[in-house]
Write a structure and sequence with these properties.
The chain has 356 residues and is α/β, with parallel strands linked by helices. It is 39% helix and 14% strand. The protein contains 15 helices and 11 strands. It has helices spanning 13-20, 37-44, 56-66, 80-88, 96-101, 105-109, 118-136, 142-159, 224-227, 229-236, 261-274, 292-299, 320-325, 339-346, 349-355; strands at residues 27-30, 48-52, 162-163, 165-169, 195-198, 212-215, 279-285, 303-309, 313-314, 328-329, 331-338. A hairpin with a 1-residue loop joins β3 and β4 (165-169). The longest helix has 19 residues, at 118-136. It starts with 12 loop residues before the first helix and ends with a helix. The relative contact order is 0.15. The structure holds S-adenosylmethionine.
């Protein structure tokens, strides 16, 4: 199994963006963007898109998912394909990933961590250094850097010796982990996406009355900063103090309120009440910390609330036995039209019909 992003909406992104209707002049703000799967569908439909996540690695994944050819010319490197070719041609160089996340860690920190083979870890170290050099020398701009980092993380995911997340590594090597790591250029659509990207706590993401905001918060106790710690380190290219068998980087400062059962309802309510957007779409799950009825009840304070069940999503399945049980998670989207806009809608029959 490769890497799975917990809570990814890739399989239901079209249905979610359907609820937003066609682009209406405002921005589609994906404020917990994760992999960018939902923002990508919105961009494909012509929305101007804002992506945000508290994890820098997720923001780069999201930008990578939504840019078009017009966003990333790689003019100083001879084009996107040439840049990827140069990345793949680097000479491996043992750096931090090699020291901490390959079996070489046994000599370095006394724990043998088998996230990557030594050869792949050294290659990833060298690729990350090359992207940093390009950035420091002004050879790439910030959007091109996001895209290359997204591609690099995808390459790492392809050879990671894990079962779904970076929460732990496997004892025995999988056949994919033994392959040589390689960056594969992605298909880029013929367009220039209007994209704004930020790494912020969701409460600090600005919205205007023109915008449609999509909130897809964590709904269980799993903290993304811990489960995807290695992507954060690859993305940052830094050398944090890591410890324990799994080599976790310090992650607590990024712990999310939405992942604590005792804080989740209050955080969700404050979030929706605090936005200025003309329409709010909030994804949640019947398996989440907050009961559906409590959530709907709390959000009616913000405006008119409509509950949209989204098709059953196959549950994140870490092993064959769980797969066989075929359990599903019941996802839904709560649409909130803030109070002040219910008045405005009377004068806007077209927009009002689109959201009915
Ligand atoms: C359910 S995932 C989003 C999945 C995304 N819609 C997708 O399809 O890939 C939740 C995301 O919220 C981010 N997150 C958690 N707490 C946050 C906060 N307080 N502010 C911003 N982002 C946060 C996590 O890092 C994670 O990427």
């Amino acid at each position: 199994m490769g890497v799975r992003y917990i809570g990814s909406k890739a399989r239901v992104a079209e249905a979610i963006v359907d609820l937003a209707g066609p682009p209406d002049g405002g921005r589609f703000v994906d404020a917990f963007s994760g992999t960018g799967a939902v923002a990508a569908v919105a961009a494909n439909r012509g929305w101007a898109v804002t992506v945000n996540d508290s994890l820098p690695s997720a923001v780069s994944m999201s930008v990578g998912a939504i840019v078009g050819l017009g966003n990333v010319s790689f003019a100083r490197l001879g084009g996107y394909f040439r840049a990827v070719e140069m990345l793949n041609a680097v000479t491996p160089h043992a750096g931090f990933l090699h020291a901490e996340y390959s079996p070489a860690s046994k000599h370095h920190s006394g724990v043998e961590r088998k996230y990557f083979t030594e050869a792949n870890a050294a290659k990833l170290d060298a690729m990350r250094s090359l992207i940093r050099r390009w950035d420091s020398a002004g050879e790439i701009d910030v959007t091109e850097e996001h895209l290359l980092l997204a591609d690099l993380m995808q390459a790492a995911n392809g050879v990671a010796n894990i079962s779904g997340t970076y929460g732990c590594f496997l004892k025995d090597w999988t056949s994919t982990a033994l392959r040589s790591v390689s960056v594969v250029p992605r298909f880029l659509p013929q367009r220039t996406t209007d994209v704004v990207a930020s790494v912020k706590d969701v409460f600090a993401v600005p919205t205007t009355t023109q915008d449609t905001v999509y909130f897809d918060p964590p709904y269980t106790k799993r903290q993304y900063s811990a489960y995807y710690h290695l992507l954060e380190t690859l993305h940052a290219g830094d050398s944090p103090d890591v410890g324990g068998v799994t080599g976790l980087r310090p992650w607590q400062s990024k712990a999310s309120d939405f992942s604590y059962k005792t804080r989740a309802l209050d955080a969700l309510t404050r979030l929706v009440l605090g936005t200025k957007a003309s329409r709010v779409l909030l994804s949640y799950s019947n398996e989440g910390h907050v009961h559906q009825a409590h959530l709907v009840n709390a959000l009616t304070e913000a405006g008119s609330v409509t509950l949209h069940p989204i098709q059953q999503i196959g549950r994140y399945r870490p092993n064959a036995r769980a797969s066989a049980s075929g359990d599903t998670v019941s996802e839904y989207v709560i649409e909130v039209m803030p109070v002040q806009l219910n008045v405005a809608a009377i004068n806007e029959p077209i927009r009002s019909a689109a959201t009915a």
